[in-house]
Amino acid sequence: MHKLKLTTIGSSTGAVFPKELLAQLKLKKGDQIYAVETPEGVLLTPYDPTLESQLEIGRDFMNKYRDTFKVLAK
Question: Measured between alpha carbons, how far is residue 3 from residues 12, 17, 18, 71 in Å?
């Protein structure tokens, strides 16, 4: 578990992330993170949840038309 400290940044509030947590999340200064509400609470993730749903739709499409793509690849 990591403890985040909230601090004032101009007229906004920001969080200070320990170096270990940034390394674990593979984040660096300037990267974006997403706060996603889950039944267990709020999940902070570097992965865009809307992009993930679009990728899943694409995977389903490619699986459905797998034979067609094989023929087109020849």
Answer: 20, 8, 8, 53
Structure tokens at 32: 């974006």
Q: What is the C-alpha separation between 44 and 39, in angstroms, rounded?
A: 14
For residues 56 and 47, the answer to whether their CB atoms sit within 8 Å is no
3 touches 21 (CB < 8 A): no
pTM, two decimals, is: 0.55
Element (H, E) at 62: helix 49-64
Q: Where residue 55 falls among pLDDT bands split at 50, 70, 90?
A: confident
Using DSSP's 3-state secondary structure scheme, residue 1 falls into coil
- Let me know: does 6 contact 15? Beta carbons within 8 Å: yes
